[in-house]
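Please produce the structure of this protein holding beta-D-glucopyranose.
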Amino acid sequence: MRTPFKAMLAVSAVAALALTGCGRQDTATSTSSGSGAAASGTMIGVALPQKTSENWVLAENLFNDGLKAAGFTPNVQFANGGVSEQQNQIQTMVTKGAKVIIVGAIDGSQLGTQLKAAKDAGATVIAYDRLLKNTDAVDYYVAYDNRKVGQLQGQALLDGMKAKKPNGPYNIELFAGSPDDANAQVFFDGAMDVLKPKIADGTLNVVSGQKEFAQVVTQGWKAENAQKRMDTLLVGNYTTATLDGVLSPNDTLARAIITSCKAAGKPVPVVTGQDSEVESVKSIMAGEQYSTINKDTRNLVKASIEMVQAIVKGQKPTVTDTTQYNNGVKIVPANLLAPVIVTKANAKEAYANDPTLSALTK
Ligand code: BGC
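Below is the modeled complex.
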């Protein structure tokens, strides 16, 4: 009985994601009118990964609308079929003459050949949200500050547990994202900046002993993988011990972790998240999920389009960081935006300018 029910849950979670994603058609924050001779009709490729979280779903329309409004011809593709589909899509963008190619990679290490082809054809390559690794064929990176995201998550986990129970020690478990996504390790390292000293001094106890990135990853950022691992952790480690908190790298996984705890008849621990997905904001307002991160997709797409406009006009795009993002071959100049931690306490203020999310905080 358990498996079919879970399978049903997984399917409806995907359907809900698609639906809520479609429901959040926030208007593209308009970019400064970019038309002008240089932009007119210039093709811009946008290669997005799988729809593993709502931010990617939102990005599609924002790129299409924002690039059109700036006078470009967008070519926006998802690679739901996986890495080879994304490789083919990028190659096709090169063949069609895209002037700039924006890439949200499924696996940032697997696109070297296609990115080199893009550079050889004279295109500029921008890594979007996820860094492109082990290649010199990437010009810029535009993303929210990923290390900071992890640090905010680690701090939120501590704060949330302290608010529930003023004195430790606290029993926790750690989850990370998909190991093929360059961001997953960065989020985890950021969180461990905060949590490691507390593990070392005995404030935190990772009862399963699973503390290394490789032990706590969630392949494909899939909810069902996180749910299965949480089920196993609960059975193996929490028959008598109480689980106080779980580090979750994003909202989709946070909800899967909460579902697992409830199914096991356990109290819901403090669980972190990321992305401000509709269902997680509802959960936070209902007092279940503890925190999320606001990385407003409208602003990230806007920053990307502004970068494209500067490149097409032959100007230098905005770069805020020239030290942090070493991709194995070069340090990629980055425009990093600031993420914001959101809990029930500041949700109203944090989403004040987001019509969809602010409606949930009333
Ligand atoms: C993004 C997160 C997202 C995750 C899964 C990451 O690369 O930065 O916002 O939750 O991918 O889609």
